[in-house]
Amino acid sequence: MNSIAIVGAGLGGLACARVLQLHGVDVTVFEQEASAAARPQGGTLDMHADTGQVALRTARLHDEFRALSRPEGQQMRALDPRTADVVMDELPAEGDEFRPEIDRGQLRGLLLDALSPGTVRWGRPITAAAPGSLTFGDGSTADFELVVGADGAWSRVRRTLTGVRPEYSGVTFVEFGLDDADRRHPELAALAGQGTMVTKVDGRALFAQRTSSGHIRCYAVFYAPEDWATGLDFADTEAVRANLLTRFAGWHPDVLRLLRDQDGAFTHRPLHVLPVPHAWTHTPGVTLLGDAAHLMPPLGVGANLALLDGTELATALATASSVDEAVRAYETGMLPRSIETAKACATGLDDLLSDDFRSAAA
């Protein structure tokens, strides 16, 4: 029998695998995507000193993280959507590294590079899970001492423990971007600053975040019914742009240039969350971490908690007298923490679209 199986090569699963290997524990990560480069890894993450950075220290990767991170990315700017005037511009103090930014792809690459070759089995989707067992897309099965569901929002492993599924939050995100912004879109790059810029009013918001490559990743965020995009073809960039410009009508032209000058495609990301509280009855042979355990609104805590979950679970597995004792100890700490954080995030989702600019920086 193999030792530990982690389903999903996201941040939490990789952090768990890294710490297990530091302790000499046999672990395999199964990932349905064909390779690490199968899809873009998203924008930038703020790593909190009391959660994500704690996990990176446990993984002995904090120095490497600091070399890639951007403390200047903690800048938070807010614009009046009707005038484009800057109404808030908070710069990090010199030496402030409480929430430095790092590109998600860079952080994932850092974790992948720290694993032994062959740890991640790419192109290995699972079709079913049971305590201590996985069924793969090719029909084969394998048994393990523990199956860890790190497989995100629509986790298959979660079904082993709970029938709960994510629910639509009533808020939708449309993602888009500006390539090589300093050279091609200098005025918009100046608006965005070095970190995050927000402009919002009446339940609508535009966010812009700078990444390490000079790309600016943007999000149009608004309340909408789940079927709001029925009939809208997201492959038709001009149709999506026209729809969004109508939704944000009356905003200052300089702000709307984020939409007008956008490069590439728009991506629809309706926001789903797990109900609060979300917990399960302890079951030997299986557990969850990250979004599989506690899918929350994207308010700057998800990646941090996933990393902390992964490293705490791995540490427990490496030090407890049995696998089941380790999982019980992990769940005893993780579940109350995630429930309290999820409660705060549920309230914070409305704050995200409120007219209070400071709530966007939480």
What is the gist of this entry?
By secondary structure, this protein is α/β, with parallel strands linked by helices. It has helices at 11-22, 52-58, 62-68, 104-113, 181-184, 186-192, 237-247, 253-260, 291-294, 302-319, 323-352, and strands at residues 2-7, 27-30, 44-46, 76-79, 86-90, 101-103, 120-121, 126-130, 133-136, 141-149, 167-178, 196-201, 204-210, 216-223, 263-273, 286-288. The protein is 33% helix and 25% strand.
What does this structure look like?
The chain folds into 2 domains: 2-61 and 114-166 and 275-354, FAD/NAD(P)-binding domain (3-Layer(bba) Sandwich), CATH 3.50.50; 168-272, D-Amino Acid Oxidase, Chain A, domain 2 (2-Layer Sandwich), CATH 3.30.9. It contains 11 helices and 16 strands. The protein has helices at 11-22, 52-58, 62-68, 104-113, 181-184, 186-192, 237-247, 253-260, 291-294, 302-319, 323-352; strands spanning 2-7, 27-30, 44-46, 76-79, 86-90, 101-103, 120-121, 126-130, 133-136, 141-149, 167-178, 196-201, 204-210, 216-223, 263-273, 286-288. Strands 1, 2, 7, 8, 9, 10 and 16 form a 7-stranded mixed sheet that branches. The radius of gyration is 21 Å and the shape is globular.
